Amino acid sequence: MKATKINEKISLSSLLTGTVIAIVLTVLVFVLLFFIKLYEDSMELNSITSSEQAVVQVMNTLENYTNDMAEIMKMISDNIGQERDGRDNFFRNFMNIRSDVVSLTVYNNDGQLLNCWSDGLELKEEPRQNLSYSEIKNDKELNISKPHVESLFTESYPWVVTISQRMKDSGGENIQVFMDIRFSNIANYVDDVGIGQHGYCFILDTDGNIIYHPQQQLIYSRLKEEKTEELKALEDGAYIRSNVIYTIYTLENCDWRVVGVSYVDEMITDKVKNMIRVCAILLFLVLITALSTGLLFSRFFSTPANRLAKAMGDFEKEAENFRFAQVKGTSEIISLSKSFGHMVLRIQRLMEKVREEEISLRKTELKALQAQINPHFLYNTLDSITWMCEEERTEEAIEMVNALARLFRISISKGNELIPLEKELQHAQSYLKIQNFRYKNQFIYSFDVDEACLNYLCNKITLQPIIENAIYHGLNGMVDTGKIDISIHQADEDIFLTVKDNGVGMTAEQCIEILHKESGDRTGIGIKNVNDRIKIYFGAKYGLSITSELDVGTCVEIRIPKIREDDNEIK
Amino acid sequence: MKLNKKPYLKVLCGILILAACYMIGFYYIAKYLGPKEVESGEGTKHYVAIITKSTTSDFWKTVFAGANAASTEYNLTVTFDGPDNEEDYETQNRMIKEAVANGAEVIIFSAVDYNANADAINQAAKRGVKIVIIDSAVNSDQISSSISTDNYEAGKMAGDAVIACEDEVLNVGIVNFDKNSANGQQREEGFIERVSTDSRINIVETINVISTIEDSMEGTKELLRNHPEINVIATFNEWTSLGVGYAIEELGLAERTTVVAFDSNVVSVGMLETGEVDALIVQNPYAMGYLGVEAAYNLIFNLAINETEVDTSTTLVTRENMFDDECQKVLFPFN
Asked: Could you tell me which CATH number the domain at B152-282 has?
């Protein structure tokens, strides 16, 4: 109930604004979500691609580096078979040139140290532990250890990895060669590799030991951790683990793996924020556009429409004095307004007409009534009655008084204008009876009535003025006996009342005149009065028609519709 | 109809306002969608001053390495300063003033003297400079964050190393540095508390030396001359550790004497290997430097600091475990 009430009060412009905003908001949100998803996907793809590129580059560099190491080992293998002096010379020079090589140690099959070259470092007399040596179990070209501290020299503990290989010496004995290298070269390279803003690369071996990390010391100080256990298990490829992209590739010629680490959200979050900002601005723009459109709409449509509606309401309340001013607005409003204006005029004209008819009806009815109380007629009749009483014609006198009484009763008829034909007929009979007495049977009259018509209604005092007219103007002063024939019959939907006399008759001009002129004769109400009342009540096609011929007589025909008591209301 | 006499003027105004809104809107859209302007440069960097007890020892060099790593990561300008000797609190106070004058937003500080440095620190804090303490505390309530070894626990750890000796009688000599330095005193307290639980142990004498190799070496030699029964020496920082080590080496007492020392450098590690020193309590100076600068960054940008007191780890390294994987990482700095 309440909801519908509220709905009714929502104006068109706010509905429009609301709808536009809702639609735009929905579309914008969907577009935003869609684009964010799209963007994230493409950014992820981009990040993965750039991460892969970086990792592949590092991998290539590392492969070059390890190939280089393999070359060096091959060179060592070529030279280790030389005789002692040449060999020492070669390796001393080699250690000078290669600053990243910390030491080169040779062991026999039992792990006994045979030779050691280094770049000016002092070998400990009895090393507590030799971290560089571990027995070589296979014949691979290149064995690379995990990082450890060089523990063979006094006051020098650099971090190194050890590359080892089995070889044969000059005597053909099996020996094991270990080269400890600092990887400052690759370290510098790996340090400089960046993926995105904060991404980086590090090197892992297949056992999950970190070979080199740009933040190795942070890891050693336990300030940073890499998920080496998890990464160890992964195949080569790119993986996304909660905002971090790991790209892993394994080198072909050794068991090192390059891991690229980059962050998804740092690349995406900013952009998404911007997108949201842009959408907010768009939404704001749409909002003000919709609001101003709504304003415009209300100015040119809603407000005029409301004015029109108010005008209609006003018109409904007081139609007569309403003055309509045209409403301006869109063409629809203007045409509505014009039509309404026309309608107002039309209705007002009709109302005027109805009112005029009402007034004239009242007047004619009043006249008809006045005519009945015509004093001449009354005292002439009373005179006749007095005279009858004097002559002791009691029977006749009674009849006269009865007729007079009936005449007035029917004339008044409780103020109804329409009465049954039967009553009207009695009225006419009473009147004729009285006149016949007064005119001492100078005329005769007859009725021819279709009984079926008697229940239909007709205007009261319809026949009497016509009869009166026939007596006073048609039969008066005639030598022969006058004759009045009254007939009532029906035809289709109508009833015809006919009053026919054999009096002096009239000319055609007189016939027309009598229907349109107020009667100058004060004794009766005019034929016109009867005609007018019938036309007002039943319409233009009903009423009187007069045919007359001089010295032959006049025939007045009254046409009325068939109306019963119960459908009286309709008219 | 009450339509305005100049309806078009109103509509025009509306359209103009609308157009203005659209232009502003599109300007911002273009700005947000356009290429990002990157702001950088020295001028915008925040300045953090690190003032320490000394700048020459390996311990402090590692602190600086950690601080450098963090300053690169957080894009801060960091300076390192410290007096030439570890008793010179006056020079430290002067450095604090200079740092404030130079516009340092945070001072990362390691106090030479628990009380004598307090005033300068309070003054700096009054000027709106945030104070982060590393390694050694100062008597001030203006400290925003403190990152150091739990010195008391480290002292206890040294005690544990002594208790681990199998000798029947343990006569302990303590060679500590400046009495006014908070961390040295805390370590000593922790050490004494722990060793006093063992009935074999008898603390013979505590000496306080100047924190240099020479002075502690001389002090140790004198101590050993005065008390030849001493067979355990405990000492609590890098320089005194070296002094004690050299004294033992010179006197040839490596076999007979158990030395529990602090911090690591190539020399003391060599001594650990060769027997002059028997156990090292190794702190995590790199973490101190790194976390100190990280705390400074959080203070500058008003980010939440998880803990106002952070304990960095300490590790007991003995001859037996010194080349274990974990101990290698603790003992030997990577670069």
From this structure: 3.40.50.2300
The reply to whether B152-282 shares the fold of B43-148+284-312 is yes
The 10 Å Cβ neighbour count of residue B128 is: 8
Between the alpha carbon of residue B91 and those of residues A84, B113, B146, the distances in Å are 59, 11, 22
Query: Among all residues of chain B, which has the CA nearest to that of A155?
Result: B266
CB contact under 8 A, B1 and A328: yes
The CATH class that applies to domain B43-148+284-312 reads alpha beta
pLDDT of the residue at A571: 41
Instruction: Enumerate the domain spans of chain B.
Output: 43-148+284-312, 152-282
Burial class (CB in 10 A: 0-12, 13-18, 19+), A368: buried
CB contact under 8 A, A295 and B36: no
Q: Is the complex ipTM more than 0.95? A: no
A280 near B CB under 8 A:
no
How many A×B Cβ pairs under 8 Å?
89
Q: Do A220 and B329 touch (CB under 8 A)?
A: yes
Residue with structure tokens 């029977």? A395
Domain ranges (residues) in chain A: 10-100+183-317, 318-348, 373-570
A288 touches chain B (CB under 8 A): yes
- Chain B residues whose CB is inside 8 A of the A328 CB are 1, 3
What pLDDT, on a 0 to 100 scale, did the predictor assign at position B178?
A: 86
B3 and A307 within 8 Å at the Cβ level: the answer is no
Identity at A81, one-letter amino acid code? G
Which of A154, A159, A284 comes nearest B334 by C-beta?
Answer: A159
- CATH 3.30.56.70, applies to A373-570: no
| Closest chain A residue to the Cα of B65, Cα to Cα | A217
Residue A522 clears pLDDT 60, i.e. is over it: no
Which residues in chain A are closer than 8 Å to B29, comparing Cβ atoms?
Answer: 278, 281-282
How confident is the model over B11-56, as pLDDT tens digits? 788 888 888 888 888 888 887 776 655 444 445 688 999 999 988 8
Confidence check: pLDDT of B201 > 50: yes
Which chain A residue is nearest to residue B14, measuring alpha carbons?
A292
* Residue A228 parent element (H or E): helix A228-233
pTM of the model: 0.63
How many angstroms from the chain centroid is the CA of residue A569? 49
Cα separation, A181 vs A468, whole angstroms: 153
A260-274, A485-499, B131-145: segment of lowest average pLDDT: A260-274
Cα distances (Å, whole numbers) of residue A129 to A126, B273, B274, B319: 9, 9, 12, 10
DSSP-assigned letter for residue A252: S
- The alpha carbon of residue A190 and the mean position of all alpha carbons in its chain are separated, in whole angstroms, by 62
Candidates A220, A263, A328, partner chain B, best to mutate (most B CBs within 10 A)? A220
Residue A88 Cα, gap to closest chain B Cα (Å): 28
Using a CB-CB distance cutoff of 8 angstroms, which residues of chain A are in contact with residue B66? 217-218, 221
Contact between A199 and A262 under an 8 Å Cβ cutoff? The reply is yes
